[in-house]
C-alpha cells in the first residue's frame, strides 16, 4: 500500500525495518513517499476491520494511510500488532501500551437487512485506557472508501482539534503524449488519489480547474474551440456549458464563496483585466482598469474582495481589491515575483508562487503580521491549493522531468510527493468540504 | 557605438547558440516537429478551418521565418525578427487573409500569468504588423501560455525555444 521514507534521525533504524515490512506487503495503487514528517508524530494503531466476504476494501489500511499522509501520525503496521480487537471490550490495553501506542482505533462491521455494512468504530486513548468516542457509519460497495475517510475524519478531529479533510476530492489536469500529440485530461479523484475519474479529454489544452463552493461542479479553461474559453461542468452526469467566448484571454475562473458569480480574466478590452461574471444574470462587471497584466483572481472567504496578480508595480505582485468600495491594496513586498494567490479558509494565510534566487517555490504570508515563509524545497513549483481545513496544501512541481503533485503542511513540517500513474500532472485544485 | 557592437555580437551569439541547440539535438527537433504537426491539425479542426486559402498563403511563404523568439519575461521584438515580419506585412497587405498570432511562454512562473505573457508577445507582433500597414481586424492574437511547449525539457535552450510567437 505504501512505502514510507522517514528522514527523522531518531527512529531511522525502526523506520528502516518498517519500510521493509511495508514494501513486502505492497501491491500499490499509489506510492506516497514522505520526505519530511512532523517532529513528534502521534503513535496510532488502526486494528483490522473485517468486512463481509465479497468486499475487497481494506478499511483500516485506508484509514492508516490517511492519518500517516497528514504527517501528524505514525500508523502502526498490521504485522506488528499483538492482537486484532474489533470492539472496546476486546481490547487489552497492555498489548498497545508496551509497543508505545498512544491511540487505538477498533471497528466491527455488521450486515444490515438491506445488505449494506454498518461499521461501529471507537477511538481509544491507550495511556488512560479511555474510550474517546464510539460512532456508527453505513455504506456498501463503492461507498466503502467514503466510509474509511469518514472514520479518518472523525479520528483526526478528535485528536488534533482540526476538522478532517480526508472526505474531499482533488481536480487536476494531466498531459501525455499519445500518437505524437499531447492529450489533455481533466481528472477528479479522492483526496488520497484513489478513484480517479475522467471529466474531460481533449487534444487542446485544459487549464485552471476550480471548484464550486458545494463541490458539485467545476469551472475550467478549455481550448477545444481553438481559443481559450471558460466552461462549467457538473461532476455527476456529463452536463457542461461554455460560459465565455471573447477574443483574447478567457481565463482563471474562481467561483465566489456564495456560488453566484465567478471572478475571471478577459482581455477583450486590450489587456488582461479581472471581471465578475454573474451566473444568475449572465452579465459581466469589470473590476480592474490598468494597462498592466491583472490575472489569477481568488476570493477572500467572506466574498467581499478578490486577491489577484498584477505587474502594475513593475513586477508580478499580489493585490487585494475590495469589491464594494473599489479599495486596492498591495499585499506582497518581498521578492520580485509573487503570483497566483490562494487564501486559506481563515482568510489570514495567503499562499502563492514566490521566486527566490531565480527558483520558483510556494510561500505563505501571514496577512496580519506580514511574515513571508518559503514552504517548499522543490523547484519550478506552481498552482498551490489549500485543503479546506487549512492544514495542508498541494502544488504542482517537476520531478524526473515530469509534472507531479506534491504536498506540504502549512507549517512546512510535512512534505511528500504524490507520484502519478499517468505521466504529467499539473494544476491541482482541492475541493471544499463535501458534507 | 561600442554598445551596439556588443549588442550585435550578443545577438549573433544568441542566434548561433539557438541554431546549435536546434541542430545538435535530434530529440528536441523531433519533439518540435511533432508539436508543429499537432498544431496544424488543431487549426484545421478549429474555427479557422474554413480558411483553406489562409493556410496556403502562409505555406507559400515557406522561405520566411514564421516563428519569432523572445527573452525571458519580455514581450519585445528582437531586431533580427523585423526583416521577416516586414515581409509578412507586405504579403498580408497584398493578400489580406486572416492569421493567428499564437503567443507562448516558457514553463517558469504561473500558468495564467504566462497566458497573459503569451498574449503580450502576440500583441507585440500584431502591433508591428499594423504599424507596417496591415489591417488589424485580420490579425487574431491567441495565447497558449506554457501549455504548448515546442521543446519539452526544463533547460535554458528548451525555454528559449518555447518563448515564441507563431504566425499561422
Describe this structure in words.
Chain A has about 425 residues and is mostly beta strands. Chain A folds into two domains: about 40-60 and about 80-160, Rossmann fold (3-Layer(aba) Sandwich), CATH 3.40.50; about 170-430, TolB, C-terminal domain (Neuraminidase, 6 Propeller), CATH 2.120.10. Chain A contains four helices and 30 strands. Chain A has a five-stranded antiparallel beta sheet, with no helix packed on it. In chain A, a hairpin with a 2-residue loop joins strand 23 (about 350-355) and strand 24. Chain B is α+β, with helices and mostly antiparallel strands and about 170 residues long. Chain B has helices at about 1-25, 25-45, 50-60, 80-95, 110-130, 155-160, and strands at about 65-70, 100-105, 140-145, 165. Chain B has a four-stranded mixed beta sheet. The radius of gyration of chain B is 16 Å and the shape is globular. Chain B starts with a helix and ends with a strand. At the A-B interface, loops of A face helix 2, helix 5 and strand 3 of B.
Entry keywords:
heterodimer, A: 435 residues, mainly beta, Rossmann fold, Neuraminidase, 2 domains, five-stranded antiparallel beta sheet, five-stranded mixed beta sheet, 30 strands, 11% helix, globular, B: 168 residues, alpha+beta, 60s Ribosomal Protein L30, Chain: A, four-stranded mixed beta sheet, 6 helices, disordered N terminus
Amino acid at each position: 500500500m505504501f512505502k514510507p521514507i522517514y528522514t527523522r534521525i531518531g527512529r531511522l533504524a525502526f523506520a528502516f525495518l518498517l519500510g521493509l515490512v511495508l514494501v513486502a506487503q505492497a501491491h500499490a495503487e499509489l506510492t506516497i513517499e514522505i520526505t519530511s514528517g512532523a517532529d513528534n508524530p502521534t503513535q496510532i494503531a488502526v486494528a483490522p476491520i473485517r468486512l463481509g466476504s465479497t468486499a475487497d476494501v481494506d478499511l483500516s489500511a485506508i484509514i492508516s494511510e490517511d492519518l500517516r499522509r497528514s504527517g501528524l501520525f505514525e500508523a502502526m503496521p498490521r504485522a506488528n500488532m499483538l492482537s486484532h480487537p474489533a470492539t472496546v471490550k476486546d481490547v487489552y490495553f497492555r498489548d498497545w501500551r508496551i509497543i508505545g501506542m498512544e491511540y487505538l482505533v477498533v471497528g466491527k462491521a455488521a450486515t444490515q437487512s438491506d445488505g449494506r455494512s454498518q461499521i461501529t468504530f471507537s477511538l481509544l486513548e491507550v495511556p488512560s485506557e479511555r474510550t474517546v468516542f464510539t460512532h456508527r457509519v453505513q455504506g456498501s460497495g463503492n461507498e466503502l472508501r467514503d466510509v474509511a475517510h469518514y472514520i479518518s475524519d472523525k479520528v483526526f478531529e478528535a485528536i488534533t482539534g482540526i476538522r478532517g479533510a480526508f472526505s474531499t476530492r482533488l481536480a487536476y489536469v494531466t498531459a501525455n503524449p499519445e500518437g505524437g500529440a499531447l492529450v489533455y485530461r481533466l481528472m477528479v479523484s479522492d483526496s488520497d488519489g484513489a478513484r480517479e475519474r475522467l471529466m474531460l479529454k481533449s487534444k487542446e489544452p485544459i487549464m485552471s480547474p476550480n471548484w464550486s463552493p458545494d463541490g458539485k461542479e467545476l469551472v475550467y479553461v478549455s481550448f477545444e474551440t481553438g481559443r481559450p474559453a471558460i466552461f462549467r461542468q457538473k461532476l455527476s452526469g456529463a452536463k457542461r456549458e461554455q460560459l465565455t467566448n471573447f477574443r483574447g484571454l478567457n481565463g482563471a475562473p474562481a467561483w465566489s464563496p456564495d456560488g453566484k458569480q465567478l471572478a475571471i480574466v478577459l482581455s477583450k478590452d486590450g489587456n488582461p483585466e479581472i471581471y465578475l461574471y454573474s451566473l444568475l444574470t449572465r452579465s459581466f462587471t469589470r473590476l480592474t482598469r490598468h494597462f498592466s497584466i491583472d490575472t489569477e483572481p481568488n476570493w477572500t472567504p467572506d466574498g467581499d474582495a478578490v486577491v489577484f496578480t498584477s505587474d502594475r508595480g513593475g513586477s508580478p505582485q499580489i493585490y487585494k481589491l475590495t469589491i464594494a468600495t473599489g479599495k486596492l491594496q498591495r499585499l506582497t513586498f518581498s521578492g520580485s515575483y509573487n503570483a497566483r494567490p490562494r487564501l486559506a479558509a481563515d482568510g489570514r494565510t495567503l499562499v502563492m508562487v514566490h521566486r527566490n534566487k531565480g527558483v520558483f517555490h510556494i510561500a505563505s504570508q501571514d496577512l496580519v503580521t506580514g511574515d513571508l515563509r518559503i514552504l517548499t524545497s522543490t523547484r519550478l513549483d506552481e498552482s498551490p491549493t489549500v485543503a479546506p481545513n487549512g492544514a495542508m496544501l498541494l502544488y504542482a512541481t517537476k520531478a524526473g522531468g515530469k509534472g507531479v503533485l506534491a504536498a506540504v503542511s502549512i507549517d512546512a513540517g510535512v512534505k511528500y510527493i504524490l507520484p502519478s500513474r499517468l505521466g504529467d500532472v499539473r494544476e491541482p485544485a482541492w475541493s471544499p468540504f463535501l458534507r | 557605438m561600442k554598445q551596439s557592437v556588443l549588442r550585435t555580437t550578443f545577438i549573433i551569439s544568441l542566434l548561433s547558440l539557438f541554431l546549435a541547440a536546434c541542430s545538435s539535438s535530434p530529440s528536441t527537433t523531433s519533439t518540435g516537429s511533432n508539436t508543429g504537426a499537432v498544431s496544424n491539425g488543431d487549426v484545421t479542426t478549429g474555427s479557422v478551418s474554413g480558411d483553406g486559402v489562409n493556410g496556403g498563403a502562409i505555406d507559400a511563404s515557406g522561405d520566411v521565418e514564421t516563428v519569432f523568439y523572445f527573452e525571458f519575461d519580455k514581450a519585445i521584438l528582437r531586431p533580427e525578427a523585423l526583416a521577416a515580419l516586414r515581409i509578412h506585412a507586405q504579403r498580408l497587405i497584398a493578400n489580406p487573409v486572416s492569421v493567428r498570432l499564437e503567443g507562448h511562454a516558457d514553463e517558469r512562473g504561473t500558468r495564467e500569468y504566462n497566458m497573459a505573457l503569451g498574449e503580450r508577445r502576440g500583441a507585440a507582433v500584431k502591433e508591428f504588423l499594423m504599424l507596417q500597414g496591415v489591417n488589424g481586424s485580420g490579425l487574431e492574437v491567441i495565447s497558449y501560455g506554457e501549455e504548448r511547449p515546442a521543446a519539452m525539457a526544463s533547460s535554458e535552450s528548451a525555454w528559449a525555444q518555447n518563448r515564441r510567437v507563431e504566425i499561422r
